Every structure is written in structure tokens, then in C-alpha cells.
Amino acid sequence: MQLGLVGLGKMGFNMRQRLREGGHQVIGYDPRPEVSDVPSLAALAEALTAPRVVWVMVPSGPITDETITSLSEVLSPGDLVVDGGNSRFTEDGPHAEILGRKGISFVDAGVSGGVWGLAEGYGLMVGGSDEDIARVMPIFETLRPPGELADGFVHAGPVGAGHYAKMVHNGIEYGLMMAYAEGYELLAAEPLIKDTQAVIQAWSNGTVVRSWLQQLLAKALKEDPNFADISGFTEDSGEGRWTVEEAIHHRVPMPVIAASLFARFASRQDDSPTMKAVSALRNQFGGHAVKRVPLSG
């Protein structure tokens, strides 16, 4: 199958390679000429045979908005656009409308797999009509992991459902990572434990907490014991926030995922204003000692 691929970053670049190895003709566009197959979106549209399928793999937000709008101007009725980035599900309807006015179909695809997707395959959660999903199915088949179709691929519902599923997936990921990280810290704090990495490595087989994330934690510890070269500053890409917002909207209790999100916020504070206030209060009501900031100079 022929596919246009917009965005050749860490994931898009590997997706192009996996698809080509799977026998597909992939023509990629990226602003960086050293990785791009064509010089512009217009050139990409011209290089593809109508009816075209173009997969967008760029950062969510304004860049995706601009890309969708630009594609609506260079593609033709009967073409189809897949947004495989981490767009918020609420953006899918407007994107579908922009393209739909030109007779262009739209599919949203949540993609999981990161840098490992090239070798292992990508988990895919897609939203759109049955007809549009069937049209892109040869691409999905090559990108997903080998094995049963239901293990690694789901047509989650209409437009927006794919990115909604990926949002919840990433919210769960926040909670899982926090649990593993807290367990690591407790193991490392106990003198009885002589090899924290070995304990976490041992969990990889036969235990109920074994998982890919757990195996990656064991790998990371083997490469950098005690994480001496890593800062605790932890960013969030948006999906965790959106998951918590949806939990509030639907009145679904989500304490673990919410706490993991707030822990990321705390990681960015050199000196927590909250804990300063707690220390001040303890001093006020109980006369407890406070640690004073040393005077400079």
C-alpha cells in the first residue's frame, strides 16, 4: 500500500522503516531535509497516487492544527488523513470537520510503542468509520505487534475514540510508573536489600507485578545504578492532565492517576512552597524547629 507520512521524528522515522520493511511504499515529509523524501506537503501530495492516505505524526496542538489545515489545501476529495500524534480527543472533531468540508476523510490513531515500536510493533487504538478503518487496515496490520489482531489493535469507536483510549492508556501509565518508582525508592532505602536492581530484575518472571515497564526500570538501573546521572525533574505531555480532567467530568474517582500527575508537578519544585507552609505551621502551633535558609555570602 502507498502512504504519505508527515513527521519523521523518533516515532515517525521508525514507523516509515517498519512499513517499508513490510512491503509498503512510504513517502515521508519532514521540515528537516536530511530525513525528508520530498521538500513540501504540496510535493508530498503530488508524489502520491489518488485516492491518497496521509498519516500525520507531529506534536499535538498548534503544529497538528497547522498540518491538518495545510493538508486540507493540497489533498483532494476521496483522500484520507490519519492523525497518529497525541492529540486531545476533543480536537479530532474539528480536524475531521476541516477535512470533511473538502471531501477528505479522517481517522484518529493513538499509538503506543515509543522507540521500541520498530522492532516490537506499535499498540494501536483507532477511531473512525468502519469504511475508513478498513481502508487503512493494511498499514495497521504492519505497524501492530505480531499475533492476534485484538492483542495490539482496537477500533475503539467513531472519530475521537482512538485518542480517548490512548489518553486513558497514558493516564494508567502515569500511575504504574509511580508505583514502580515508589517501590524502587523503598527497596533502596532498606539496608537489608543488597542489590535493588537484582530484586527488580527478578520480578520479570513469575510475579504478578511483571510488566514491560518493570523490565525497563530494571534495565535503567543496570545502566545507571542509583540514577546518578538523572534529574528528578519529570515533565508531562498532557495525557495525564486530560485523563484527570475527564475523571472529574464523569465523576470517576481516580486517586492513583491524579496523585501520580501531581507528583510530577512536585518534581519540578526546587523548594516546595507547600512544604514551606507546612513547616511554618508546625512552628507556629507547636514550636517545632524549622530549617532556616542559610544566608548567602
From TrEMBL:
Oxidoreductase in keyword set: yes
Record InterPro entries: 6-PGluconate_DH-like_C_sf (IPR008927), 6DGDH_YqeC (IPR004849), 6PGD_dom2 (IPR013328), 6PGDH_C (IPR006114), 6PGDH_NADP-bd (IPR006115), NAD(P)-bd_dom_sf (IPR036291), Pgluconate_DH (IPR006183)
Name of the protein in its database record: Decarboxylating 6-phosphogluconate dehydrogenase
Keyword Oxidoreductase attached: yes
Domain 6-phosphogluconate dehydrogenase C-terminal per the UniProt entry, residue ranges: 162-296
Alphabetical UniProt keywords: Gluconate utilization, Oxidoreductase
Domain of life of the native organism: Bacteria
Gene3D superfamilies: N-(1-d-carboxylethyl)-l-norvaline Dehydrogenase, domain 2, NAD(P)-binding Rossmann-like Domain
Similarity annotation: Belongs to the 6-phosphogluconate dehydrogenase family.
Gene name, Swiss-Prot/TrEMBL: gnd
